[in-house]
Amino acid sequence: MFRTAELQRKLPKEDYHQQVPQLRQELLMMQMELRDAGFPVIVVFAGVDGAGKSETVNKLHEWMDSRWLITRAFGDPSDEERDRPEYWRFWRELPPNGRIGLFLSSWYSLPILDQVYGHTSLAEFDERLERIKTFEQTLANDGALILKFWMHLSKDAQKERLRKLEKSPLLHWQISKRDWRHWEMYDQFIAAAERTLMKTGTGLAPWKIVEGYDERYRSVTVATTLRDAIRFRLDEVKAGRGDGNSEATAHSSVPAVDPNGSARVTVLSHLDMSKTLAKDDYDASLKRYQAKLNQLQRSARDRKVSTLLMFEGWDAAGKGGSIRRITSALDARDYQVIQIAAPTDEEAAHNYLWRFWRHLPRAGHVTIYDRSWYGRVLVERIEGFARTREWQRAYAEINDFEAQLVESGIVLLKFWLHITPEEQLRRFQEREQIAYKAWKLTDEDWRNRERWASYELAVNDMVEHTSTRQAPWTLIEANDKRHTRIEVLRTLCERMEAALAGGSKSS
């Protein structure tokens, strides 16, 4: 794979000075056009130590407008980053639409280092590469342009480069004992690199090997590749091909009846909506479960076990009331409630999962989402805000997201609160008569009732596709508020108790 990069390719100084002025002008003009194009550019630099990764990034900053470039380098995780899933620190640094993100020491660094140093088996290495591939696929499917450069040197060229830097009065600080140790492990690094490029190079996220011996050659090669790739995507967008505009965004059509004319049966059809709880039983259960929850959360905080609760359900189904019964049992310093509405401009400029990744709790804390990432397969599907292929692939994207949460040690609970149309109507009418509740009722709430059947079928698809062993759905009959609140508290306590009994992140 690396044979063609062993030639120590060079670009003569005359050719370099002839090409660079025009190249810089084209890069700047391209940046201006990119700002309004509606997609981000993600550029990953990996490769052999001393192959000029940092120097190339610095050169791009020199040639382009740095105000529209985002450069990030990831070293060993900080305490804050260790408190969260591995990919949290990568998601929060992704560039918004219109920007170019340049990533050094990216999501490839630790998997390769762990493999070379023997910290992971080959099977574990492949699993991590598969996660990388899924991560990049999710971003590319959403429109991100991904370019990946492997900056390469032969072993002899790397040795020459390290010695040259070591002797430089200005640059010798860049070379450490670790760099020479890695040079001695050159063959292991190349073996890991070849496997990485083979397994993660895709049509949507391709690798380009750049010989890094000559500074002029590598700088022009990277800049030219970047220019051509962005220009091609910009031309696609102009032609209506690169942003999916050719696909209709009409309302999702989900037949509410079977071919024989009867109403379709869904997972919600099997719930017993007559369940109630007497007030005396409710009061006693509320005190018992809130006390238990308080104890469990204090233990979870000490043992650095995070909890993430996610509430979905019909308008007026009691999500807010259930959340308040949880938070009143907790120390306000230990939890955060995130209410999800239409995305802000900043959020809309990123992948739809970005705003959920950024709010993940630190170890030992609780985050509660009032509405969630499932909006992609519910309201965005029904209202036509997401194209068909976008909400259809979201099931797999969500499953991967939730798997990462659970694998990191987060206790994840997903609640759907279900009420009947008749009970919802009664609650709507009640809200209209109570001043401090009237603000909750909107024209959109009334309009959503007209699509009840379509939403119920979308919920059925959501549960079927995303109720996994790691992250199952809990469907709760919510016609009776007392029953709802106790069921939520009981389920939460049972899941936290089981998680704490099974060990914690700090153990």
TrEMBL record:
GO terms for molecular function: polyphosphate:AMP phosphotransferase activity. Residues 11-232, 277-499 form the Polyphosphate kinase-2-related domain. InterPro entries: P-loop_NTPase, PolyP_AMP_Tfrase, PPK2-related. It comes from the Bacteria. One of its GO terms (biological process) is polyphosphate metabolic process. Gene3D superfamilies: P-loop containing nucleotide triphosphate hydrolases. This is Polyphosphate:AMP phosphotransferase.
